[in-house]
Specification:
Layout lengths: L8 E6 L12 H16 L8 E5 L12 H6 L6 E5 L5 H15 L5 E4 L15 E5 L1
Length: 134
Amino acid sequence: MARGIKDKVAILGMGCSRFGERWESGAEELMVEAYEEALADAGIDGSQLDAAWFSTHYEEINVGKGGLPLATALRLPNIAVTRVENFCASGSEAFRGAVYAVASGARSTPSGQPRARPQGTSRSWPPPTALSTA
């Protein structure tokens, strides 16, 4: 019988880049802005993360393929970065992947870094989060 994930995952903190037309800001700056806010809100530092999720709407616009843009912009330690692409559901897909990684016990404190719009003019949902087992 299937068992749910209720009470197995907690969202420690969240952050998102300032909403608006941010043509002067590149993808890297927007990622860093949301990441630093999420870490501060969670009260942790980047060394406590053991995985990250990176989502994008179009792979060729602003960020390229793979998880390297996230790892480089955030100067992540030597941790796994999973990149997902699912059009408007990309942020939700990254969040879901991080939640299930924690619920399964495969990861303890991952970070999700959704990026819904390639131009960076809209806040992503769900926002970047730090997750931990309950």
